[in-house]
Amino acid sequence: MPTPTVPAKRPAPDAQEKAWVADEDRFVLQQAKRKAAIRVKAGRAEAIDWLVVTLTAVDPERNLVSDVFGEEQAEVELRNPEDVLEDLTDRQLQELEKDIEAYVALEQSKSNLEYWATMKTICQERRKQSSRNLPSARGVSSVSADLDKLLGSKNLDELGKLEMQIHTKLASDKAIDTDYWEHLLSSLLVHKAKARLRNVSQGIMHVKMGGLRRQQCENAFTLRARFEGKLSSTHMTFSEKILGHDSISQSDHPRHPLDPEPFLRLALDDKQLPSVEEQDFLENVTSERLRVLKTGFLSKRKLSTSAQPPLKRARADDDFEPAGSSATSFDREVARGVGENEEVLNTEESVATKNLQSWSGKYRPRKPKHFNRVQTGYEWNKYNQTHYDHDNPPPKVIQGYKFNIFYPDLIDKTRAPTYKIEREGGRRRGQSFVPAGQEDTCLIRFVAGPPYEDIAFKIVDKEWDYSAKRERGFRSSFDNGILQLHFQFKKIYYRK
Known about the structure:
It contains 15 helices and 10 strands. It has 496 residues and is α+β, with helices and mostly antiparallel strands. Strands 1, 2, 3, 4, 8, 9 and 10 form a 7-stranded antiparallel sheet that branches. The protein has a 3-stranded antiparallel sheet with strand order 5-6-7, with no helix packed on it. A hairpin with a 7-residue loop joins strand 6 and strand 7 (455-460). Helix 1 (12-42) packs across helix 2, helix 5 (90-106) runs antiparallel to helix 6 and helix 6 (110-131) packs across helix 9. The termini are far apart.
């Protein structure tokens, strides 16, 4: 480490120059944050802009963007930083990493520097996964899956203690598996960055909850004052009527305008509302709360269209559906959430739609809505029975999929949408081109016709189980504008 060459007491011109440079960096940083906030408000935000605006929620200098959003600042959507990186390509991740380095060079706050270092670590990890062409939901091997299981449940303090233990073990003279411990250390640093990011997300949620509570209290006090004023005015008017008409009997007094309607007599509007049992209502509320917690962010109030990101604006336009369509079906499917052994599959693969030019001039092409689930579970084969038990289960593997694709505005309703499997390099079913310990993947493409473009997803390439038994649950149907394809993979049993 080089020793400092600057004397303890700097000359006045040098100290003044250093202060000028610091002020200039601070000004450049503030302007960069304001520009990011402006792009978010205008719907032109890039990944770095979302990270900047999200950081302002926990930044002690978050008032830097208040002049941009004004009263709408508390209603601006704060995206989970990990969700921002979810669908970025390798090139976009590389550009984002350069943008992060620019902020690191200007940032002076210690907490903000930790935030940017965390985002840079996660960017680098996602680039590694992209270069290996391995989805983040699948480990490269059973060892990686075991490490993810070991580290994923630990908090930041526990990961810090484990990191010190690993450094101590690597520095010792004992005979150890160096490759394993170094691999464990690199995985630990990634999980440590994710743990910091979870803390940031929780801090953002607490800040937003505090702001919403204050806003709700202000609205409540405003309505209370308005109600009390109206009640006082109504009461005085009624008293004057009584004093001015002493000869009027009690039965002739008009009923107080604020008296509630009789409880046993339902209004016409109330009779048309759907009824629900108390138990069903409580289960609905519980599932909605779990869904909100799993989403990881607080929903904002609906802003103007110009304040929404371009992707969401496009989806809002493309997903316009007339009354009586399957919009309620999509909302109902989303409200169901995911089960204990399910995960959401929303990553689309880029595919070209055949014959798009023949009808794109007449109809506006759009991607269909979808809500898909990945079914996971344990495989108790001979190896797993030997090395694992129910207290220490093996890594989960993908056992099936549930696709729900929505086509409410299909032009030719006499032709049902179809699906087909596409394998790379002319590979046939049953052939494997990947090393041992990894799984082949393929594309499943859904084709419908105008006005919908083709949509495709990457799935594990295994043999399907077409059994319609309840525990297997194969389903392929198209009804009310919804294409449902549910299937599980065949279980392979080896004879002794």
